[in-house]
UniProtKB/TrEMBL annotation:
Gene3D superfamilies in the record: Alpha-D-Glucose-1,6-Bisphosphate, subunit A, domain 3, Alpha-D-phosphohexomutase, C-terminal domain
Domain Alpha-D-phosphohexomutase alpha/beta/alpha: 6-133, 156-255, 263-369
CDD domains: PMM_PGM (cd03089)
Species the sequence originates in: Streptomyces sioyaensis
An example Gene Ontology biological process: carbohydrate metabolic process
Protein's recorded name: Phosphomannomutase/phosphoglucomutase
Keywords: Isomerase, Magnesium, Metal-binding, Phosphoprotein
Cofactor dependence: Mg(2+)
InterPro entries on file: A-D-PHexomutase_a/b/a-I (IPR005844), A-D-PHexomutase_a/b/a-I/II/III (IPR016055), A-D-PHexomutase_a/b/a-II (IPR005845), A-D-PHexomutase_a/b/a-III (IPR005846), A-D-PHexomutase_C (IPR005843), A-D-PHexomutase_C_sf (IPR036900), Alpha-D-phosphohexomutase_SF (IPR005841)
Domain Alpha-D-phosphohexomutase C-terminal, residue spans: 374-447
Length: 452
């Protein structure tokens, strides 16, 4: 029997195919998902990985055997699956391993309206059923087998996004898009069609072997080609999508990366113009700039832990209009509280095309403080190192500590956060300050304790 502890993560299923899971297991997941959600109809999509059609088809068979009517939307981005779940009012399953290497695949599951399924919201029960049914076999359903039909929602998805951000009146822009051979190559041409955008398409061929570079734009080595093309062609900006195109990373006209915190602040200001007085969620390692911009634009910032389940829970609890993370995930109330990199990219295009200056000048107002970026340290004793940090700072004058997520220490002119990785023996450090010299000083001081 497969070791589900290795593939059922906090928010999704993910592992090597076929070594860790295969179509027979996918069929059991389809049956269990239908049982746990109580769904009489579901929608399923998949990315461009070679194993995705077979796995998603097996999941569909398992769901239909439990009586569910299945709508297959085929090749799609993860946010396109969320759109289908929201627009059709159906629980959904997306087959993707996002930016993981080619041999991986996974399932992101949601309830109707794109509500996330994680460990505390159904995934643990799904795992338990799959384990039981792997051993005992799936009981025969009382209902008749459900039908499996196909539907293309790409045009509806594009129309929905274009209804949320009007790009028809912007000045013409030249934009380079690096799809990384992922699903952005499928969605971008339809979303951008007919708009005043000169599209320079890089790596739009759907290829789950990722022949050009990993589809993870947060790793600097994976945006080198995009940066070079923007500089060579004099483009106004560059956009890079990850493998399942739910995250988007931006570079300016110089090819310089734009901080996801700056994008969060920019989009927050635009969403607050539409929804005055709204709440904006940000995780605790986004820049000081984010809550400042939210307050300046009449909104209410709410700080939360890192991770999409926490962001979505807070958005649902507070009725927030928007949420942003340092990892380039952007969440919108107008998109069922789900994350969509495409909609964030459209906000950037609208903001840039609605004025005459370059992107670097536009985002400068949202990128106010030097930061270290995330620095990982391999440690044998995560808890012990965090305790040592707490002891070093808890009695220091002028500092406050909190443990919402790891350890955050805040002073008047700097802050740092240290969090333990859930999957590796790592501590992750982020530092921000009012000047670069202070960033360096605090970084070195904290690393000396972590690595002692």
């Amino acid at each position: 029997m497969a070791d589900l502890s290795q593939i059922v993560k906090a928010y999704d299923v993910r592992g090597v195919v076929p070594a860790q899971w295969d179509e027979s297991l996918a069929e059991l997941f389809g049956a269990a998902f239908t049982e746990v959600t109580g769904a009489d109809a579901i929608v399923i999509g998949h990315d461009m990985r070679p194993s995705s059609p077979g796995l998603s088809g097996a999941f569909a068979r398992g769901a239909s055997a439990r009586g569910a009517t299945v709508t297959l939307i085929g090749l799609c981005s993860t946010d396109e699956l969320y759109f289908a779940s929201g627009a059709l009012g159906l629980p959904g399953a997306m087959f993707t391993a996002s930016h993981n290497p080619a041999q991986y695949n996974g399932i992101k599951m949601c309830r109707a309206g794109a509500a996330p399924v994680g460990q505390d919201t159904g995934l643990a029960e799904i795992r338990a059923l799959v384990e039981r049914w792997s051993d005992e076999g799936v009981p025969q359903p009382a209902a008749e087998t459900g039908t499996i039909t196909r539907r293309d929602v790409l045009g509806e998805y594009a129309a929905h996004l274009r209804g949320l951000v009007d790009l028809s009146g912007i000045r013409p822009l030249k934009v380079v898009v690096d799809a990384g051979n992922g699903m952005g190559g499928h969605t971008v041409p339809t979303v951008f069609e007919g708009l005043p955008l000169e599209l320079d398409a890089m790596y739009f061929e759907l290829d789950g072997s990722f022949p050009n570079h990993e589809a993870n734009p947060l790793d600097p080595k994976n945006i080198v080609d995009l940066q070079a093309r923007v500089r060579e062609t004099g483009a106004d900006l560059g956009l890079a999508f990850d493998g399942d195109a739910d995250r988007c990373f931006v570079v300016d006209e110089h090819g310089d990366p734009v901080s996801p915190s700056a994008i969060t602040a920019l989009v927050a200001a635009r969403e607050l113009a539409k929804h005055p007085g709204g709440t904006v969620i940000h995780n605790l390692i986004t820049s000081w700039s984010v809550p400042e911009v939210v307050k300046e634009n009449g909104g209410k910032p709410v700080r939360t832990r890192v991770g999409h389940s926490f962001i979505k829970e807070e958005m649902a609890r507070t009725g927030a209009i928007f949420g942003g993370e340092h990892s380039a995930h952007y969440y919108f109330r107008d998109f069922w509280n789900a994350d969509t990199g495409m909609l964030a990219a459209m906000h950037v295009l609208a903001a840039l095309g609605g004025q005459q200056g370059p992107l670097s000048e536009l985002v400068a107002q949202y990128d106010r403080y030097p930061a270290s970026g995330e620095i990982n340290s391999t440690v044998d004793d995560q808890a012990g190192r965090l305790a040592a940090l707490k002891a070093a700072y808890q009695d220091r004058a002028g500092t406050t500590l909190d443990e919402l997520d790891g350890l955050t220490v805040t002073a008047d002119d700097w802050w740092f956060n240290v969090r333990a990785s859930n999957t590796e023996p790592l501590l992750r450090l982020n530092v921000e300050a009012r000047d670069a010299a202070t960033v360096d000083r605090v970084r070195d001081e904290v690393l000396a304790i972590i690595r002692a």
